[in-house]
């Protein structure tokens, strides 16, 4: 899964994100997510058992909007033929792709890269309301770069450009599968369990 949004408009002044506590991180992420609208949500459905073959009026970070336009996102077309959040939620839930951990009788894993904003935007549009007030309430709901990670695993982007949800979520999936094969194969596979239910910047343990 990957999302594209107008990037961060609120920050903790003079504090680097890495120095913030999980609760401080959640507080600033929540404020950003609640006050902005999602541009794209990209999903890749992958079964390892199968062979692999309107922004003008909204709060935004202008530099990010310029980047998205340079990467090929056409906001005018989005406004003309883009789907509304209400319709998207209906189709998403009707497809039975939900936060639940099983799908078609198989265990499901959600894969993101620094997915804090991705999950929080997904929760926001599915619930059709602002995020919960504090981190503990949010966690009850959900039981630099990507290019560098992909390059270190010798994974190449095969479709479209960076900073588009459809392309980024595919690269995330490919990178994860390569990292799993390289570092978590055989007896070490169980080590991946340590990352279950962990969101970057929001892990309390």
From TrEMBL:
InterPro entries: CNOT7/CNOT8/Pop2, RNaseH-like_sf, RNaseH_sf. It comes from the Eukaryota. One of its GO terms (molecular function) is poly(A)-specific ribonuclease activity. One of its GO terms (cellular component) is CCR4-NOT complex. PANTHER family: CCR4-NOT TRANSCRIPTION COMPLEX SUBUNIT (PTHR10797). This is Probable CCR4-associated factor 1 homolog 11. It comes from Olea europaea subsp. europaea.
